[in-house]
Amino acid sequence: MQLMHPGLKDILLIQQYIKTKKIGFLSIETPLPPWFKKISQSIPNYSIGLQLRREYRHISMGIRAFRLKDIDTIFIFEIYNQHLLGVLPLLALTGKQVLISLHGNQQFAMTSKIKLFGLVYLKRYLQIFNNLKVVLFEIDDHVIPDKFRLPASSKIIIPHPILSEVTPNLKPGERLPIDAKIKIGVVGMIRQDKPISKLIARLQEYISSNSDQCELIIGTPFGQKPNYLDQLGVALYDTTKEEDYISVLKQIDILVIHYDKDRYYYRTSGVISDAGSCGCYIIASDYPVIKHQVNFPVPIGSTFSTFDEIGSLIDQAITHIRQKGQDNHWIWREQRSAAAIAKLLFPQNT
């Protein structure tokens, strides 16, 4: 199954840990009929065509829900708030328990009126139909204003799942060789006008003073790589392909990542989950959900409020890696496995 957020794919494994319920999975990432795709792409306004394609995918998902005959619960991997008008009635009318994964939906409603309307619409459905539930990641929504929160009885909270197909490089008890350089990494989309460029500059300053024990590597899709990165004199890796992205994460000892507050204050990071799964020590923006993601059930990193903190946090990270290796990562994985998530979603059936 194709997913908008590939880092959630381990949720597909929960069925093997559930004894008495059958789970069906649905995603909006479904192929479009060629005729519809052609018509929508012929519309001069790209945004209108895009929204039509998304609306089709939501309605198509709602219709596919009725074809899941021999299942008890439907798990929805992703939705867009602005496209709930047609799909929610379809999901409610299935009569089955429906779990809707929210991945940033409440966050986006804070800056968009149409997405706020969709969230309010979802809230009404949750109040009326007991078979509809939402799945929130990491923490409850008490950290955001009341108008963006959802009914308490409709929420199930789970940690962001790991990628079970990858593991940390160091086994429990193993440590890096004494002479091994620590690789500090930045991974993701990079634009020179965004704060990420300031972060890279700060990391270069740190490494220039600690070049005997650290080196900087950057992973980014080369198709959108800004030219200035070529002038930095650091190791650059193309992360366009999924396997290359994971390969870069496996090389990194410390991942430093910064997010805009208006997009990630109440939202998990797929990159943090992937990096944690690979054994990276994480240094990330200090927002409530990300802080929980980095610290539950045990710390695998730290968070910062200003770039001025990064140097001292890297010092702490290096000490942690030298003394404790990736031991905490193996513990962190256990509570984020498909087995652990199955117990949270279906406590009476595992």
Automatic annotation (TrEMBL):
SUPFAM superfamilies (alphabetical): UDP-Glycosyltransferase/glycogen phosphorylase
Entry protein name: Glycosyl transferase family 1 domain-containing protein
